[in-house]
Here is the input.
Amino acid sequence: MPLTTRQRPYNAAMVAGTDERAAIMAAPHMSGTPTPHLTSSASPTRRRSRMLPLNPRRREHRARRTPLGALSLATVCVLLATPVTPAGATTAVPGSPDAHCAGRALLRVPGAARQQADCLDELTTAGTVASGHTDPADYAGLTPKDLPTPTGVPGIQVDGYFPDTSTTNTDHGWHHDSQFVIRLPDRWNGGLVVAGTPGNREQYAGDRAIADWVLARGYAYAATDKGNTGTAFFRDGRRPGDAIAEWNTRLTQLTRAARTVVAQRYHRPPARTLATGLSNGGYLVRWQLENHPELYDGGVDWEGTLWRADGPNPLTFLPAALRHYPDHAAGGPRAAEATAAMHRAGYPAGSEFLWPYHHQVYWDLTQRIYREEFDPGYDGATEAGTPYCASGTPGCDADYAYPARPAAVHRAVARIALTGRIGKPLITLQGTLDVLLPISRDSDVYARMVHAAGRGSLLRYYRIEDGTHTDSLADVFPDRLRPMVPCHRAAFTALERWIAGAGLPPADHTVARPAGADPATLLTSCPLGQGLSPGRPQVTWRGTGTYHGRMSFLRRRSATPAGPDFDVLAMDPGDWPGNLGAGLLPAPDGTCQGVFLRYDLFGGRGPAMIIGNLPEGSPAREVAEGEIPFEVGQLLLALENDEEVTVVGTEDTPVLQGDNLLIVRRLKLSESRISCVQFDRSDGVLVTIAAWDRPITDDLYALLKPLPAELFQQG
Here is the structure.
């Protein structure tokens, strides 16, 4: 929830480090640090007004909240290898509708009160900083300093605003909120990315972290300032919660308008619309996929803020930080208990080196202004509380107790709260060392909410080891932190493949920080499979629908009756009604560690089956005594079943297949609706069949036809 203005100067001496680090920490460019609205010297044609400081006594500016204004609603081992077409840009043909800036004068943003379309040779910050079509102050501190900037993206930029009565955004000298930016690259890949901004920043806040990269991949891009900006955003609206409710409305409004503008420019609507955002922008992704899934094909939520009427939410853990951190920092007899209290509040052990900065910049200001939005009566006539007040001071936010506040406060939060009922694929990622929105109080909880709502199949959740809320801090602590930007890009790419039916992303897990990785590597790489538990790796399915073609997944037994010794056993699609999906299990080094067949007779409404083979050394075979086989775990995952299942017994059973004897081990599971059998091949491969609501009888093996081995190429 990075903010845009600082409450008081940061004391660099609070963080041990080199002079260079101290200088970086002290500079007003950190995400969430105060970044005054400055005029860019690289943009002589563009001037911005400085934001007036927050005046606690100016209650007359609230009235108690002004109207919102008019809102316009406007990847076995290549046995299945079907290459996935990347989201690459199409080639523009001079004179065609995709020629440079063609049709600029015809573009109309539905519902906009004002718009300006400019033809630019460069839409990324490599060009827009100099041309005045972005504001570096908007995105200061959100990315590592050495993050490369792509180039070579000509196209059209449309700036403007929707009708609104608030005036905190001074971009372009407009003094008007609900500003937006829409960028339309000449070489378009058919997609649209929409974003809301983090904290209370303006519409260019995502330019370096998100826009540059997606534009270079050929996407159109649109972003909004969410309808109110700055640390006095709570003055907008008539009643508590209005200002944040407007954020959701404005992103919906922009998405609809941007889809129309894309169709105007390229003569067809976007083939896919993706939502993404950081912090408050991540909250917006969650809300949109819960409330308007019809507008999107999926989203990437980058450490989104969690709002729940009954908690947790920022108002339930920030007061604990304000109350206990001073004793922690002071040392002495009360320090140990204060530190333990911080840990109990959600601030992770091992993150203590980040607490001084967040106490100085984030915690106090964030608590006060968001509390003012939902509970203005807490401090009486004082606006947004008293900065850094001591616990025990009347109306002090260090003593704020959200659970005890009146029901009206909880209702105000409920108006903008999340439910977990997402309607399109979502990838969530958050750093384990986030101390603005502690992970145990935010994304861990939201992931459970999604599963509890029965939408677990639509979610992938990655905890990024040593990631924190603001990426520029990775420049200050390169030996302790990893930047989140490359993980966001890896998640975005995984989402592209997911919605294209080219493979599910890895299962939920903590993405490990590679041991000994240098900062340069961490800046460009974040394999989402890193750190995936060896006992529960994730199958990558080829997709859904009928399986077209043949695939080897077992082997044919030899003529000797001593035991199972299979050459090739394969399936003939003609014998299998219903929907089939096939996939591979990749090892951490990228090699193939298993081939799987999924059989779904009634498209999710009846018996289902997973058949797999795992060679020796496959990480998926290494399960503890009593734990379920990998295939059973995958079956439960496919069925969106979260219950705990264990192995309660085993029995070896002979099975005759013609004149051949097959010895199988039947596993008895605590969930009686699951049947599971296993047998070992002479080549060391373990074969497992797991079925839901269908017994595995001897007749089942008759469906497995022996076919010549030469039909199958490992590639």
